[in-house]
Design brief:
- This protein is an alpha/beta fold.
- It has two domains: 222 residues, Rossmann fold; 80 residues, Alpha-Beta Plaits, CATH 3.30.70.
- Helices cover 35% and strands 26% of the residues.
- The chain starts with 10 loop residues before the first helix and ends with a helix.
- The strands form three sheets. Strands 5-6-7-3-8-9 form a six-stranded mixed β-sheet, with helices on both faces. A four-stranded antiparallel β-sheet has the order 11-12-10-13. The protein has a three-stranded antiparallel β-sheet with strand order 2-1-4, with helices on one face.
Length: 326
């Protein structure tokens, strides 16, 4: 019988062992459930510094994972380290992280500036510093002209930008953004993607979730796909797109003057079909949603359609993920 090494490293020591570039997140066999509903199931993933996209259909476990990462939930199984520490109830770590949740939880009676300043003060910032940082953060999300209006008067897109502002106002090392582009028009989406790139260039790491792969195009080449609480795939945008490109995606556009826009979009080779739903709505099927939406961003200023909404069919993405699992 061979003897065990005198100083064999424990599993915990191996888990915490430092690499030359330490990962931002290390999750091993992560589990979290709500009664009989599984939020996370044996999720193991390592995420290095930089920008990482977290992609999956609604209900895949993205929000549960992010809430564990920021210390809002404690995993019921497995191990989790964020910036080398256990995030749950870790007040020292909270000052190094920013979190933009999916939930719309603003104080409607406060102005945007008062709201962001209030959260900075709760985090320990002095009054003068909090006032300056709140103003700078709201300027970065292009709310400088509305920062002294009450949040209760804001549109959905403006409220989303306030949530992004409070997540970045204290200059955190690591920023977690749960569906941060939801509710934003094409111009605001471009502005926020530019902001995320600037933050990364300044040394911050970002974890950005989306149920739409194309939203992360140009932001990062590192994508993590989750489905039903498990890691499904991890790789570059190109590798993930190759997996998904076998199935066309459905995109619904609603606009006041949708006909000229629809005619211009429907002539491209990637558009399989275009079906009128009513006088203001068209349903497209495309094999390349990234190219389709890039054309849309170019056509909106030229056609002035009065764009009301843009939706990618979640049920279709769910079917794609089911295909990949099978």
């Amino acid at each position: 019988m061979s003897a065990e090494p005198e100083h064999a490293p424990s599993a915990e020591a191996a888990f915490l062992e430092k690499d030359e570039v330490r990962p931002i997140i290390e999750a091993r066999g992560l589990g979290r459930w709500y009664g009989e509903v599984v939020g996370l199931s044996d999720l193991t993933v390592t995420i290095p510094p930089g920008i990482t996209g977290l992609v999956g259909p609604n209900g895949a476990g993205k929000s549960t994972f992010m809430k564990c990462v920021v210390g809002e939930l404690r995993p019921q199984r497995g191990g989790l380290r964020v910036l080398g520490q256990d995030p749950f109830a870790n007040r020292a770590l909270y000052s190094e992280m920013g979190f933009c949740p999916q939930q719309d939880a603003l104080y409607d009676q406060l102005t945007a500036h008062q709201f962001v300043e209030h959260l900075l003060r709760i985090g320990g910032a002095r009054r003068g510093d909090a006032r300056v940082r709140a103003e700078e953060a709201l300027q970065r999300v292009h709310l400088e002209e509305a920062m002294h209006r009450r949040c209760g008067t804001f549109s959905k897109g403006m409220r989303q930008r306030v949530r992004i502002a409070q997540a970045i106002a204290h200059s955190p090392r690591f920023i977690v953004l749960d569906e941060p582009l939801t509710g934003l028009d094409p111009v605001a989406r471009h502005q926020m993607r530019t902001l995320f790139t600037e933050l990364a260039d300044q040394g911050a790491s970002l974890l950005i979730s989306s149920h739409v792969l194309h939203e992360l195009q140009g932001l990062t080449e590192r994508i993590v796909l989750v489905h039903r609480g498990r890691l499904l795939a991890q790789g570059s945008v190109r590798e993930i797109r190759d997996l998904l490109s076998q199935h066309p995606r459905r995109i619904r556009i609603r606009a006041d003057r949708v006909r000229p826009l629809a005619l211009a979009l429907s002539t491209e080779a990637d558009v399989r079909s275009a079906r009128w739903l009513d006088e203001e709505s068209v349903l497209f099927e495309t094999t390349d949603p990234t190219a389709f939406l890039a054309r849309l961003e170019q056509l909106v200023p030229a056609t002035s359609p009065g764009l009301q909404s843009l939706e990618l069919d979640d049920e279709d993405l769910e079917a794609v993920f089911d295909y990949l699992v099978a």
